[in-house]
Amino acid sequence: MNPGVTVFRQRVASGITSGLPAPAKSSGASEELSALAEICQLFSLARGARATRDAMENALQTLAQCFGILRGAIVTADASDQIRIEASYCDREASASLRELRGDKIVRRVLDSATAVSIAESGTVRKGVPLLRGEECFGVLAVEYVIPDDCRAPDIDGVLRVLGTLIAQFLTVREHDGGRRPPKTQDDASPAFANLVGDSAPMRELYEQIDQVSRSNATVLIRGESGTGKELIAQAIHDRSNRARYPLITVNCAAMPESLMESELYGYERGAFTGAHGRKKGRFELAEGGTLFLDEIGELNLSAQVKLLRALQDRTIERLGGTQTIKVDTRVITATNKNLEAALADQTFRDDLYYRLNVFMIVVPPLRDRKADVVPLAEYFLKRYSSEYGKNVEGLSRSAIDALMGYQWPGNVRELQNAMERAVLVCKNDNVELHHLPLGVRGSNESSGGMEPAAAQPVSLGEAAGRFEKRLIVDALKVTRGCKAESARLLRTTERILAYKIGKLAIKCDEFKNPSQHQ
User: Fold this and answer.
1) What domains lie within the chain, and their CATH numbers?
2) What is the distance between the alpha carbons of residues 300 and 349, in angstroms, rounded to a whole number?
3) Could you give the percent of the chain with pLDDT greater than 90?
4) Residue 6 — φ and ψ, nearest 5°?
């Protein structure tokens, strides 16, 4: 046995570590920063408990790639002191058992002391760092790695401390959010729609399309204006698929510099370029078994399009600087707000890639085409931001509802979300009033209190009520494209009563069957 290893183990056993040599930096501080940046990005993409678990498993895999850990586990302890494994990693050449990483030697000592603990034995180091909620230690990040022959341990202590803090924060947020569910728009058999709010006809059609394609491996192209929630659609497809237990990795093609696109998607080998100190997996490999979501696919340059086409056709990739062909089992979902047909005509987008991506197209309706969902969405965001900012804003005034329904929402759901966040911030009472909304949303409703401008001649109460009733019915008919049955459900009345009102108010339903006339 290497004498240095013996000395190291003796000192650890006796609690003396101050005399050990300084940890080695295998490739400089940039490697640690790169690893942390990659792990932070994985967590920033996580949505929900399942995605957070996947992010933790990917974080352990990143530690294995960068620092060569043999095994790793993230464990938590519940109120009854039972240990639960949240995520784990085991190198193929190591023992498959993770019992040592959740046993008394590491986990119990860290839980009891709320401090980091290291144990060296049989040529390896097992290290555990605490997951803290305030001063309470509720879990442990534990890893095992081989002691190098020169008796210098890998420089991962700082990375483990930072990663432990990051994991603790995410688990705390997950636990905090676990008791809150957004308003349901479907029954309990459709949990993957939890983040999609709306029960209008266009949204019901969208839910049906998601169900149709989610359990296949078909490539999906999601099209829609900016702010319509294309990423949420991709998340719903992934969550309802048989790949749900594997990660969903998101790449924004518009935000990614062209020079980094290839290395980010396909990874690179050590020495592929200056600063490539080790092998790194790309997003295709990180999403192995799961889904890769390429947002703003219309912004890819022609060179990147060629490589993506090969990956989609052959299901193989090559890392930058490598020669090995790697098989990948990754489903691809793409999205864009760009007119791809115009890009084909301009020859800025390859037609062969377009046909490969466009196996199943989903068009997300803009918010102006589903006005029936405006108020449910606004109430959802009210509840969300009221809880986030510690306020008790419970609802919307009549004038605020009229303004929301009368606005065309060019920024779609994202603009509505921002408007409701602002309203919660400035609201000082229980309900959002008209003056709490952004100026552009108030429009002409501000001077009239949400009602139509006063007539030159006084009108009776019956006439005013009739005008208001007619406007509500017309708005419902616009949303449902002239369908009386759906309009009746939207207005919470019977089809017979609605037909009577339509005849009495001389409303022509046929005029609303072409929505382009009323946008």
Assistant:
1) 3-18+28-177 (3.30.450.40), 197-365 (3.40.50.300), 377-448 (1.10.8.60), 461-518 (1.10.10)
2) 8
3) 26
4) -60, -45
